[in-house]
Amino acid sequence: SDAAAELGPQDVVLALDVDFDNGLSAEGVSWCVGQSSNLSGRLVLASIQKLARPEMLARLVAEQFDYAIVDEVHHAEAPTWRRVIDRLNAGFLLGLTATPERADGRDVATIFDDVIACDIGIADGIREGALVPFAYHGLKDDTDYRQIPWRNGRFDETALEQALIDSPRMERLW
pLDDT tens for residues 27-37? Predict the structure, then answer.
């Protein structure tokens, strides 16, 4: 679906009365992302960005979820994330992250009463097959961001995209 394509790195999965043993058909899935605002499915797939909107926060308070699974939970101390998490009415809240250490020193485990179900390092995860090996390659970015217009607290999207597409770094990347 178009909604599925819009889910990204800051996703939330909210589960209502899901019987995982009997599987779940597509008819039981609803989306709260992009243009969709459906919280009525047996399985709800949502983005933090969508849930953080005032009208969605008001709706979220009225919902009862059996399970709430929050991915990328290392972002949970950010105000937008806290507004959503604080309004989740869930029987069980599970936070997932591969990077629990935050640069600002805040401890996201406190959101979950310091209960850590599994703590596995990257090397152990790769060794156990839960994570794939990776390699980082630095890429010099010589884009002159001063030349890109700044509007409403962010770069002009069209000008930014054009500057990045035409940048010499793209030649080095490909």
Answer: 788 888 888 89
Torsion, Cα of 12, 18, 23, 24 (10° steps): -60
Q: Give the position of tokens 């996201």.
A: 108
Sheet strands side by side (includes 43-47)? 29-32, 43-47, 11-15, 65-70, 90-95
Phi, psi (deg, nearest 5) at residue 14: -110, 125
95: alpha, beta or left, given left = phi > 0 and alpha = psi -120 to 50?
beta
The structure tokens 């009862």 sit at 64
Q: Helices H, strands E: what count in the chain?
A: 7, 7
User: Structure pTM?
Assistant: 0.61
Q: pLDDT at residue 103 above 80?
A: no
Per-residue pLDDT, averaged over 59-86, amounts to 89
For 142, the 3-state DSSP assignment is coil
